[in-house]
């Protein structure tokens, strides 16, 4: 027969085990949250809202690097209004990126992301992306090549912001707060706040889990995906998991056309 002392010890032991289980569960959740946060930073535009005050267009539609950067993280740092809608919101478009490492064709659906497609056509028509570097490669946690900064530093932008779009296009977020951005997906980078996309975008070369806060607006063709994967195989400068790609990538010319 179990004595009262033995019963007391048993209950204390069971309580301790329950506490340990709760602590371990909390630690696992914290690790997952930290992993998501670290991954998300890889596709956040550097320097907050300052990204959108540099590399802006002058009144004649040409690129100008003379605009002074702002330290404000707010989208109100935009110094230029979003381009007037000029694309067919019911049509599909093709963005062709001619790079030194291979051509990348991106299929875009204006019905799902009209503001994003319109912005890319506007910028491409102005030659904004021509002779710009893809400044960031991430090979740990998430798998992306980030491009679209005329400064080549991660802090450049067109001087305006566009709204987030199609955020539910990849499905509902799981318990860890992420969705899978499949290999071949092209999505917008942002400052970490809503509706702060500019010109920077990332090319997903391997399935990556991220919060559904980055507008997925296009899909690479097979040849383009392979070209990005070949860049990723070379790794990051210095052997890190995040930084400038060892195999430099330059967008020599970008063009957006209606299918």
Explain the layout of strands and helices.
Elements: H1 4-41, E1 92-99, E2 102-109, H2 114-125, E3 132-133, E4 136-138, E5 144-147, E6 179-181, E7 185-188, E8 201-204, E9 208-210, E10 216-220, H3 222-234, E11 242-243, E12 250-258
Antiparallel strand pairs: 1-2, 1-12, 2-10, 3-12, 4-5, 4-11, 5-8, 6-9, 7-8, 7-10
Describe the protein's architecture and organization.
With 259 residues, this protein is α+β, with helices and mostly antiparallel strands. It has three helices and twelve strands. The protein has a single domain (42-258), classed as Cyclophilin (Beta Barrel), CATH 2.40.100. It has helices at 4-41, 114-125, 222-234; strands at 92-99, 102-109, 132-133, 136-138, 144-147, 179-181, 185-188, 201-204, 208-210, 216-220, 242-243, 250-258. The strands form two sheets. It has a ten-stranded antiparallel beta sheet with strand order 3-12-1-2-10-7-8-5-4-11. Strands 6-9 form a two-stranded antiparallel ribbon. The model is unreliable at 47-77 (pLDDT under 50).
């Amino acid at each position: 027969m179990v004595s009262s002392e033995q019963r007391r010890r048993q209950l204390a032991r069971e309580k301790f085990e329950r506490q340990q289980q709760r602590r371990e569960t909390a630690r696992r959740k914290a690790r997952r949250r930290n992993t998501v946060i670290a991954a998300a930073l890889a596709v956040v535009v550097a320097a907050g809202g300052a990204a959108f005050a540099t590399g802006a267009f002058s009144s004649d539609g040409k690129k100008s690097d003379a605009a002074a950067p702002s330290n404000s993280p707010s989208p109100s740092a935009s110094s230029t209004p979003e381009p007037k809608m000029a694309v067919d919101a019911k049509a599909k478009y093709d963005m062709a990126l001619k790079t030194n490492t291979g051509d990348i064709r991106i299929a875009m659906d204006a019905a799902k992301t009209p503001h994003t497609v319109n912005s890319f056509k506007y910028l491409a028509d102005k030659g904004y992306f021509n002779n710009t570097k893809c400044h960031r490669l991430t090979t740990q946690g998430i798998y992306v090549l980030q491009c679209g900064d005329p400064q080549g530093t991660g802090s450049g932008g067109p001087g305006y912001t566009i709204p987030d779009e199609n955020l539910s296009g990849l499905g509902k977020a799981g318990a860890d707060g992420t969705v899978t951005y499949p290999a071949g997906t092209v999505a917008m980078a942002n400052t970490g706040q809503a509706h702060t996309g500019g010109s920077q975008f990332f090319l997903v070369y391997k399935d990556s889990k991220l919060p559904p806060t980055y507008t997925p607006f296009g899909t690479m063709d097979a040849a383009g995906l392979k070209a990005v994967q070949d860049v990723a195989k070379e790794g990051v400068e210095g052997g890190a998991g995040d930084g400038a790609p060892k195999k430099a990538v330059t967008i020599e010319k970008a063009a957006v056309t209606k299918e």
